[in-house]
Amino acid sequence: MMRLMFLLILVLPTLIVASGGGHADVSMGNSDFFYRVFNFAIFAGLMYYLLANPIQNFFIGRKKGIESQLVEIEKRLEDTKKAREEALVKVEESKAKAKEIVETAHKEAELISKKIEEMNRYELELMSKNYNERCETQMRKMSREVIDDVLSTSLQSSDIELSNDRVVNLLTKKVA
User: Fold this and answer.
1) Interatomic CA distance for residues 138 and 132, integer angstroms
2) Pick the residue with more confidence: 155 or 1?
3) Which distant-in-sequence residues (6+ apart) come within 8 Å of 39 by Cβ?
4) Where are the domains of the chain?
5) Residue 12: closest CA among 30, 31, 38, 34
6) Does pLDDT of 120 surpass 70?
7) How far is the C-alpha of 32 from the C-alpha of 17, rounded, in Å?
8) What is the C-alpha radius of gyration for the chain, rounded to an integer number of angstroms?
9) pLDDT of 137-170, one tens digit each?
10) What is the C-alpha to C-alpha distance for residues 88 and 13, in angstroms, rounded to an integer?
11) With contact defined as beta carbons under 8 Å apart, do 13 and 39 qualify?
12) Confidence tier at 38 by pLDDT (50, 70, 90)
């Protein structure tokens, strides 16, 4: 089909020009205006025939390319929206976990402070008890020393006679 069209393009203008005859007066009927219009119509038809499909394919391909780009952009947009929503959910979860961790830390700190307070109170009571026991021990020790001192001084001096009442009196005075 293409060859026939090409052959027509080459032969038809030659036939039209060859039938021209002499150059007499130029009138609308005698001029080559109609032939030129006819040649232009053939040229335009051939151009349309030859270029219509490639141009149409080009624009269809371009349209499909733009559509695929739009679909890809919309897909990316949807993916981005989903990722954003997921990130927001994760942020909310993280905030809840952080709040929970802070509450747990406060509770643990409270428990630890109570435990330390109880341990300090126990140690303070123990220290107070030890102090009181030491004071009592020291008091006993001092009273023994005083008794020993009084007895040793009273036993060494033989010129003084001691009675039980007198020893108790002396001890009471020394201790008091």
Assistant:
1) 10
2) 1
3) 13, 16
4) 49-157+161-175
5) 38
6) yes
7) 9
8) 64
9) 999 898 888 888 877 776 665 555 667 777 777 7
10) 75
11) yes
12) very high
CA 19 to chain centre: 87
- Other CB atoms within 10 A of residue 30 CB: 12
Token pair in block for residue 106: 């406060």
CA atoms within 13 A on the CB side of 97: 6
Instruction: Tell me the per-residue pLDDT of 40-58, one tens digit each, with 9 for 90 and over.
Output: 999 999 999 999 999 999 9
Mind spelling out the 3-state secondary structure of the chain? CHHHHHHHHHHHHHHHHHCCCCCCCCCCCCCCHHHHHHHHHHHHHHHHHHHHHHHHHHHHHHHHHHHHHHHHHHHHHHHHHHHHHHHHHHHHHHHHHHHHHHHHHHHHHHHHHHHHHHHHHHHHHHHHHHHHHHHHHHHHHHHHHHHHHHHHHHHHCCCCCCCHHHHHHHHHHHHC
Q: Would you say the pTM of this structure is higher than 0.85? A: no
Contact 137, 161 (CB under 8 A): no
